[in-house]
Amino acid sequence: MKKPLFIAIFQLLAFSISAQCHNSVSACTSAVSIVMKDGTLFSWGNTYSRTFGDGIIKENLLIPTKIGADNDWKFVSTGELDSWGIKTDGTLWHAGAYSYSSKDIDTAFTQIGIEKDWKNINAENRVAIKTDGTLWVFDITSNSLFKQIGTDKDWEKTVSHFGTLAIKSDSTLWNLNYSNGSKSQIGNSKWLMVSNFYDSFYGLQSNHTAWYGSTNNPNQLIQIDSENNWKFITYGFGVKTDGSLWNIRSNTPSIRIGLENDWTEVYYNEFMMQLAIKNNGDIYTWGSGVQGDGSATVSHNQPNKILAPCVITETELEETSNLMDDIYPIPATDVLYIKSSPEVVVLTDMYGKTTMLKGNGSYQTEDLAKGLYILSYINGDEKKSQKIEIQ
C-alpha cells in the first residue's frame, strides 16, 4: 500500500540528520557565544564594548552570527564587557574592552601572550584555569594580563555571573578570595555543576540532587524538591533525567515548562533571557532582551525556537549509505534523478538546514547553494540516505 504523502514528509523530516551541533555554549549577562562542532564561532546579543570579535562595532547582533573565519575554537565565553576564547592549540584570545573606562578595544580577536596551556576561562569574572590545574585572574597591571591565585593545581572549573566559586578536580566546591588567594570549602559534597548570581547559587551534586545556597551562609544548603533525578542545573532552571524542563526556586515547588521530554541543557542569562537545547541540537530562548530571533524588544513567555546553525561533520557524511546506483548524476547541477522515484526527498546542508524537494524521479536543484548535502528519502518502508554534491 502506498504511504500517504504527508506521512512520508513527516518521517523524512524526523529522519534527516540532526546531531548535537555544539561543542560549547556560553550564555552570560546579555550575550551568547556558541562554538560549533566544526570549531567555528557564532554569537548574538550585546556587550558594553559593542563588538564580538568580528572586527565590527555594532549595538546588537539580533540573530546567531558567524564571527570571523577561524575554525579552531575550543571554547568562547562572552560577558558584559568582552569575549575571551581558547583555541584548540591552547592559546588565549580576547575581543572587546578591558575595562569600562578603557578606550583600547579589540574589535577583532587578539591573542593574549604566547602560552598554549589555557584550559577554560570565564568572561564574567575573568578567571581562567590552565592545563596544569592552576587558577588565574585578570590583572591589567600584569604584563601577561593574568596573575595566579594561590598555588593549588587541582582546579577544574570556575562559576559565572560575577561569582567567586570554583570546583576542584575531586568535585568539591570552594569560595575564593581573588585578592589574597584564600579559599573556604562549601560543604563536603561532590558537585557536578554550579551556577551562581553574585552570592547565591544553584548546583547539581553527584547523586543528582539539586541544591540552593549562598556564599554568605555556605553551610545552609537547601535541597530542591527532595528529588534525585536532575541532570542539568543552571541558576533558577533545571533539566531532569527524563528530559523535562523546569523553573526551580529555593522556597517554592518547581514549575514545569512545557510538556516536552527532549531537553538536554539550560542556561541562565542575567538580563532575563534563558536558553535551552534539545537533544537534536535545536536551540530555544525565552524571556526578554536579544534572544537571537531577530528582535531586541519582543519577549517570549515560553521557549521559542531560533534559527541557529547546526553543522554536519565529514564523519557524519561518511556514515551515510552508499546509494550511487540509485542516484545520478553526482555531482548534480540543475536536476537530480533517483531511479526508485520517491515522491519527496529531503536535503540537509552542512549547517543542518533542510530543503524538501518534490518530484517523481527527477528533482530540481538549480536554486540550491553549491556544496555537500545529505539526501534522505523513503523507499517503501526503508529509509535511505546518501552524501551528494551540488555544483
What topology does this entry show?
Elements: H1 5-15, E1 22-28, E2 31-36, E3 41-45, E4 61-66, E5 73-78, E6 82-87, E7 92-97, E8 105-112, E9 118-122, E10 127-130, E11 135-138, E12 146-149, E13 155-158, E14 165-168, E15 173-176, E16 183-185, E17 191-197, E18 200-205, E19 210-214, E20 217-223, E21 230-234, E22 237-240, E23 245-247, E24 255-256, E25 263-268, E26 273-278, E27 283-287, E28 300-305, H2 314-318, E29 327-328, E30 335-338, E31 344-349, E32 354-358, E33 362-364, E34 371-379, E35 382-390
Antiparallel strand pairs: 1-2, 2-3, 3-4, 5-6, 6-7, 7-8, 9-10, 10-11, 11-12, 13-14, 14-15, 15-16, 17-18, 18-19, 19-20, 21-22, 22-23, 23-24, 25-26, 26-27, 27-28, 29-30, 30-33, 31-32, 31-34, 34-35
Written account of the structure:
This protein is mostly beta strands and 391 residues long. Helix content is 4%, strand content 47%. The protein has helices at residues 5-15, 314-318; strands spanning 22-28, 31-36, 41-45, 61-66, 73-78, 82-87, 92-97, 105-112, 118-122, 127-130, 135-138, 146-149, 155-158, 165-168, 173-176, 183-185, 191-197, 200-205, 210-214, 217-223, 230-234, 237-240, 245-247, 255-256, 263-268, 273-278, 283-287, 300-305, 327-328, 335-338, 344-349, 354-358, 362-364, 371-379, 382-390. The strands form 9 sheets. It has a 4-stranded antiparallel β-sheet with strand order 1-2-3-4, with no helix packed on it. Strands 5-6-7-8 form a 4-stranded antiparallel β-sheet, with no helix packed on it. A 4-stranded antiparallel β-sheet has the order 9-10-11-12, with no helix packed on it. A hairpin with a 4-residue loop joins strand 2 and strand 3. The chain starts with a helix and ends with a strand.
